[in-house]
Amino acid sequence: MTAHLLEPPTTASAQWGQSLAKGGLATALLHIERAATCRGSWETAHEWISTCVSQPVNSFAGASVFYGAPAVAHVLHLATIHGPRAYHQPRMGLNSAVEHVVEQRLVAAHRRIDCGIRPAFGEFDLLGGLTGLGAHLRVRGRQELLREVLAYLVRLTEPVQGRSGWWTHLAPSGEQDDRYPGGHGNFGIAHGIPGPLALLSLTYLDGTRVPGQLEAIERILDWLDAWQQNGAARAWWPEALTATEADQGETRQSKPLRPSWCYGTPGIATALHHAARATGDTDRARTAEAAFLDALEDPDQAHSLTDHTVCHGTAGVRLAARRFAERTDHATALRILAAASNLPDPGADATGQGLLEGAAGIALARCSLAAETPGTGWDALLLLV
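-> structure tokens emitted (385 positions)
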């Protein structure tokens, strides 16, 4: 483990301490996971938690499961459930703050839909939007508010101005861009519609259901089916779609790109597999399994993995493969695990401490991959389980 993951700093800014994506909160989560799997001490985990919450917790309306009150609440929830210390007092105030954030964002999202305006993907996506907040509520067991999030996601799938309801007016960067004059449709589980698909499907499997949920799942599946590409790889999807491509019915992307969790086939196939189980579609499950396998076994795709991070590197892909294999038959699972084992080992060659692109995320994935006992289930935030 790299040195900057061992000892917490003596002082920490709120921006650093309350960020799962890029900051120290991911390292606190790492030490919670290590303690829960008997690889570390709860005292070390408590030191990191204390450092990360030493400043007032940010509960602004744009807070997400990867930054601010929801991120801190999620980490404290896992520490309380799995550890010897109780963080009930700070959790009580944080839970109320999180619920207020979710309610504010739901009001804004429904108002936007009522006005017939296309969304920014930060409204609905996994990393910064209501899908990620829903993933937190699912883990926390806050079903009433989770159902409100699901009801919003059902509305999200209804068409807006002649395109799918999740079609954003922005570029994949989240900004206006002349290369995307009509916005884009996003296929990544991190920022696109596979994230909502995964949450809708997993909650349906859990028994947390709202009117129109299956119909919303089917609308998303219809769109993914329409843009499924078949070639040397049995199934793959573009990373993003321009308005021109959508109008012409053809993507300019000629082959699958790197097989990452965030934008590549492993993330999309994971969401599809959840949906196949929710709808009882065995043919779709086989398609998802074949796509996942191709992403791992195709040398061109495997060699395009250039780092070890969770978001777009081998740590995320290997962890996704482990969770995917746990849901398949024995023969398929063995093949997926064998192919994943041929990928480069997720070492610790990342800068920063974040979960998504930092050393803490890599260490978390390695810990989960090596654990012989159940951990905290932290990767439910990635909608892998």
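The radius of gyration is 20 Å.
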